[in-house]
Amino acid sequence: MTIRVAVGGDQPLFLEVLARTLDTADDLDVVAVAHDYETVLPTVERTRPSVLLLGETTLGGEPLCLASAVRTTQPACGIALMVGSVTPSVVDRAVAAGALGIVPKTARFSQLVTTVRGVAGGCLTVHPALFQSTRATPSSLSVREVDVLRLTGGGATVKEIAAQLYLASGTVRNLTSSAMKKLGGRNRFDAARIAGEQGWL
């Protein structure tokens, strides 16, 4: 079965090379190339691909908004993102926007093809390099870090957390900073969200 692929982004030369290379895979058929963000959604609506591959240097707001829009208007189209940044928060944001495939630009071509195939099959397909060894596991968070994150998730301020746990405010900040590094959170609330989604709180 041939997988219909559309390629989009904001780097025309890169997109053209990517499209021609993908077309060499036996089961992939690149049906369209959208050379800028404005034409991605109309292109997907017109050509109805199985997979939309967005080739990006950075994962900013625009590609994420596009991914959400495509998932809303064309739910049968799976979305794969090529990203330059390889952090756990990138994976979280991309999946939240509706992407099923995330692959770094440092990956080999075979991994990109595997990702596209996985997305076409409706599977979450993430390159192993995106799962950093520093990402937290339940055992890597201390009891105090879990306590601080739980209270943070409930909306407590640093001062309130310190009073409730009988700690100094500076200690709470240190525990928060440590948990953020382990979880890859952008701030203390993002770290609490990640821990909560993992069921660690």
From TrEMBL:
Keywords attached to this entry: DNA-binding
Protein's name according to its UniProt entry: Transcriptional regulatory protein DesR
Residue ranges constituting the Response regulatory domain according to the UniProt record: 4-120
A molecular function GO annotation: DNA binding
Protein's GO biological process: phosphorelay signal transduction system; regulation of DNA-templated transcription
Domain HTH luxR-type, residue spans: 134-199
